[in-house]
Design brief:
Structural class: alpha+beta
Strand content: 5-15%
Number of strands: 8
Radius of gyration: 21 Å
Largest sheet: 2 strands, antiparallel
Order of helices and strands: HHHHHEEEEHHEEEEH
Strand order of the largest sheet: 1-4
Shape: globular
Helix content: 40-55%
């Protein structure tokens, strides 16, 4: 049903000749200019949908970690409130926020594992790997390997202060790597920054005082989900203009 609705929306947007100023119209216009087929346009749209769906789950994991790291949370919120997002370039000002996101992706990557097909006979770490063999690895385990990540079970955004460590060794793979890396990587990072900015600037966030089951990590096929854990109160903040008038 969803795919059918997407197809109908794509056809409708193409036939109007004057598409609305929305994300669907941008996709259709850009992909038509690139000479892509309708099915390829639909696949791109579905990729964005999956990115947004997984982004919301990733933010749930981030907030769960923030419960026990209030100083990190408060530092991130202060940065978000001091640096409103007004242009694409202004996203660069949210350096600490990006570090927090990267660390949450290390601790709880969206994908439990990655797979690749071997196209020709090759050797890997001294082992013979035949063609047409499927390789699998777990970035969840890789991200918690003490060999590459000191104090791997500790939530520490500072490990990303100077960028992604071990970038040449492929030991950080929340979005996989190479020509088959996630197409939605940049959309995901931008969307998470935008969402966190909106929340921080419009709400005071505090853990719910009620008891809650301890958080745990669950698996659904190849996807990782944070299950259980505390909730947050979202209390609307007064705007700066309202505060100024009241004073």
């Amino acid at each position: 049903l969803y795919l059918r609705r997407v197809r109908e929306a794509v056809v409708s947007t193409q036939s109007t000749g004057n598409p609305d100023d929305d994300m669907l119209a941008w996709f259709v216009t850009a992909n038509d200019a690139a000479g892509l087929t309708d099915e390829e346009v639909i696949e791109d749209i579905m990729t964005v949908y999956m990115v947004i769906d997984n982004m919301s789950k990733q933010l749930s994991a981030l907030f769960t970690y923030m419960i026990n790291h209030r100083e990190i949370f408060e530092k991130m919120v202060a940065e978000l409130r001091a640096n409103p997002i007004t242009t694409y370039k202004s996203l660069d000002n949210l350096r600490y926020t990006e570090m927090v996101i990267l660390e949450s992706l290390r601790m709880t990557p969206t994908l439990l594992k990655g797979t690749r097909w071997v196209l020709k006979d090759t050797k890997l770490a001294g082992y013979h790997v035949p063609a047409e063999c499927q390789l699998q690895w777990s970035q969840y385990c890789l991200h918690r390997n003490e060999k590459y990540w000191p104090n791997a079970r500790q939530f520490d955004p500072e490990r990303f202060r100077n960028g992604i460590p071990n970038v040449d060794t492929l030991t950080y793979l929340p979005f996989l790597a190479g020509p088959r890396a996630c197409l939605g990587k940049h959309i995901a990072m931008i969307s998470m920054k935008l969402t966190l900015s909106m929340l921080a600037r419009n709400f005071d966030l505090a853990p719910q005082p009620m008891a809650a089951p301890p958080p745990s990590i669950s698996q659904s096929m190849a996807l990782i989900r944070m299950k259980g854990g505390p909730w947050f109160w979202f209390n609307p903040r007064k705007s700066e203009e309202t505060v100024a008038e009241a004073s």
